[in-house]
Write a structure and sequence with these properties.
The chain is mostly helical. Helix content is 52%, strand content 4%.
Length: 486
């Protein structure tokens, strides 16, 4: 029997592990890209450089209302021509589309990570006109930079001032909301044992920023609203003597970002996302040290993480969230989005995310979605995920504003062919790896033939039969434990 091309694994186990953790899933484009590098680490370094990504960038043109100014968005909401929920829905679909299309998968993953840490819900009335700008100006440019720069951009952005009511924070009437969350969630955390006076002083340094919430949403800085005078946070004094307090605020935010307690929180959260729900102390320490030694540099922190033995030995110790799972299924099937609108594939993906338990950017509190896998592993989620996989797997299901490879393109070029090799062929196309033995047997059970059964023809005249068989095989691959894990 002739050797069948495409049934040998393209990815080494180490590369497959790195891809599972730092991308939204394997597809043929990613497979071809990985082959251009001598090893997974070289690919990862190229990803950290964040080359241009025109296909992902073009997705913004599918959602023209996301380019509306804050004042226009508010006027549209007031006139009931385009509501806050519609802007939020567009932003969620735009983000999903980028994750499906992006070549810069590591950057997209880190945008999601930081968006979840510095979380602002979509459709939230006090911030929605600025939410797209927050993604474009605060999160994306700094997702692989330094946490100092990212923190400064996020905390001073109008969307954050709206969401956490810093627009109400003035020299004469302190609003503690953002000042408290800055300490509790975004930097040092409760283990730093900050006091209520520390919270108030943190808020005083944040005075001066304005957003005309519910009145056009113009944003700026008013020195007359800024509290002037010395303040102390965690025993460190800030002169805060200028009427324009933005330079002192930058000093304060840089100092917070450089604190060892902040390094601990960032390192631990990174390790929970990318290593395991209970990461070993050694890897948290390694990431923390890299963060501090490199002045909060995110790339250096990630290099320390992927270079640690705890990361290399954490294979299959994280589950995909519902959002990650929905996107990974489309990528595994080489579905390419081509637009948006009613009944479009990207609209279906947004609905799948909601249906399986995680509408993007919808967490109602400022602490973001939980990073631990067990949050998302309810029986209801699993049943709905398996159903979603089955719908996605069929090569003949019609798609709106998306393409997928035709059935004949999915068939191996060499026949006769054992059923086991057909399963391996599909698995390599979808995951870059041969199928595990239990996946092969599960596919054989679904088809009703032994895995050793040999097919003797390509069924050029029986394409419906081949579509049925490929749907079953590809559905089993998507429903396998390996496909559900990161």
């Amino acid at each position: 029997m002739a050797k069948v091309p495409g049934i040998e694994s393209l990815l080494t186990p180490a590369t497959a592990h790195l891809v599972r953790r730092f991308t939204y899933g394997y597809n043929s484009q990613l497979g071809a890209e990985l082959l251009r590098y001598p090893n997974a680490e070289a690919w990862f370094e190229a990803q950290l450089a964040r080359p241009s990504d025109p296909d992902a960038d073009a997705a913004l043109t599918w959602f023209p209302r996301l380019s509306d100014s804050a004042s226009t968005a508010w006027a549209n909401h007031r006139a009931d021509t385009y509501g806050s929920w519609q802007y939020g829905q567009d932003f969620a679909m735009y983000s999903i589309a980028r994750r499906v299309l992006a070549k810069n998968q590591v950057h997209e993953m880190m945008v999601d990570f930081w968006s979840n840490l510095l979380h602002i819900p979509i459709s939230e009335d006090a911030s929605f006109p600025w939410r797209m700008d927050y993604d474009a100006k605060a999160i994306r440019p700094h997702a692989l930079g330094t946490y100092r720069e990212l923190l400064n951009a996020a905390i001073t952005h109008p969307a954050m001032s709206g969401y956490l009511t810093n627009y109400r924070n003035t020299a004469s009437k302190i609003n503690e909301n953002l000042g408290r969350e800055l300490l509790e969630l975004y930097t040092v955390g409760r283990p730093a044992r900050y006091s209520e006076d520390d919270v108030k002083n943190s808020a005083r340094l944040l005075t001066g920023f304005t957003v005309a919430v519910f009145d056009g949403y113009a944003a700026g800085y008013d020195p007359n609203r800024h509290y002037v005078g010395p303040v102390t946070v965690l025993g460190v004094g800030f002169a805060n003597s200028a009427k324009d307090g933005r330079a002192e605020l930058k000093n304060y935010l840089d100092w917070l970002a450089r604190r060892p307690e902040t390094a601990e929180r960032i390192a631990h959260r990174l390790c929970v996302r990318f290593v395991s729900d209970e990461p070993p102390r050694s890897v948290v320490d390694a990431v923390k040290q890299a963060y501090l030694a490199n002045d909060t540099d995110i790339k250096a922190s990630l290099r320390a993480l992927i270079g640690h033995e705890a990361f290399r030995s954490s294979v299959m110790k994280k589950a995909r969230t519902p959002v990650e799972d929905v996107i990974a299924a489309d990528r595994a099937c080489d579905i390419v989005l081509t637009g948006a609108g009613k009944d479009s594939r990207v609209s279906s993906l947004a609905w799948f995310c909601h249906w399986t338990g995680q509408t993007p950017f919808s967490w109602p509190r400022p602490d973001g979605f939980p990073e631990k896998s067990d949050t998302y592993l309810s029986p209801a989620r699993m049943l709905r995920s398996w159903t979603m996989h089955t719908w996605t797997a069929s090569p003949s299901n019609a798609l709106e504003k998306a393409t997928r490879p035709p059935v004949r393109q999915l068939l191996p070029p060499v026949w006769p062919l054992p059923l086991a090799d057909l399963v391996h062929h599909q698995s390599v196309m979808m995951t870059g790896r041969r199928a595990p033995a239990d996946t092969v047997e599960a596919a054989a059970t679904m088809i009703g033939k032994p895995s050793t059964h040999t097919f003797t023809q390509t069924w050029e005249r029986e394409i419906d039969y081949m579509n049925w068989m490929l749907s079953l095989i590809r559905g089993v691959i998507l429903n396998s434990p390996e496909a559900m894990l990161r």
